[in-house]
Amino acid sequence: MVPSRHLAMGETMISRFSIASILLGLSVFGSSAFANPDLIAAAKEGDRDAVLNALEAGRDGPASLGRPLFFAAQRGHAEVVRLLLEHGADPNTSFTFGSPLHTAARANDTAVVALILEHGGDPNLPAGDFDQSPLHEAADRGATEVVRILIAGGADVNFRNDKGQPAIHDAAASGHQNVVELLRGFGAKPDLPNPIAPGELENANIEAGSRALNGCNTCHEVAEGKAATGIHVGPTLIGVFDAPRAGQEGYAYSDAMAALSGSWTAEALNEFLSDPTGVVPGTEMLRTPDMTREERIGIIAILRDAAR
């Protein structure tokens, strides 16, 4: 027989676990976590008849259909997805893991992606951990046909997630060069700054550039004559000006960077520092410290002077 003290403790632990489970469900799936559990189970299994019976019983209004729709889309149950959408499920319900369109794009499910788009799914809906679009998800998985369907449905090939990265970067970083070329063919391009004007480098604000360069020091050594060590996971910046790109000996560059030709001219640096993942999709330098044009030109002037 279990002592009453231990039983009470067990009951408390179960109660706490139940509360934690509910809170987790709320954080991941929002209020739709309270959808009919039988409907959720049927949607997961792809049991169209059970889903239809649950819907016709009238227990579930459109607001509670988001979670069943997400699971049906995640598991590729196209007929259940259609049924839920026809009964008013919001195709743009968003959870921690994205919308139904995001999860279908991740699964490279052309049929479900097309269905959701037909019923008002937003191909540019930012959702998930990084506010990515469904196109980011498809590009990351190399889902070529889903990429085509999303673009035909209005997806913006130059949409950026909350880290400022376009879908073409996800494709390149995952090694899907065919998707990289496909996105370029549909107009994916970097967000380029205005070219450096005559005299702009000569009159650069070195103090502003020096402040910004300190932000680069998180990953790069910026002191002259010092090799990159410890926290400095990127190559040393001093000496890169007018040097071949991906040219430092002993550094393991990303495939995207290693494939580049040419040198780090002032204009090449201007473009790359402005939009690294757009200019070199697949680069391991995912973003630069937030900086103004004045600060960026100041950095370039410092690197130029260090190379003289």
UniProtKB/TrEMBL annotation:
Put simply, this protein is called: Ankyrin repeat domain-containing protein
Q: Which InterPro entries match?
A: Ankyrin_rpt, Ankyrin_rpt-contain_sf, Cyt_c-like_dom, Cyt_c-like_dom_sf
Ranges occupied by ANK repeats: 68-96, 96-128, 130-162, 163-195
Q: Where is the Cytochrome c domain?
A: 204-307
Leader sequence residues = none
| Keywords linked to the UniProt accession | ANK repeat, Heme, Iron, Metal-binding, Repeat
- The keyword Heme appears for this protein: yes
- What PANTHER family has UniProt attached to this entry? ANKYRIN REPEAT DOMAIN-CONTAINING PROTEIN 39-RELATED
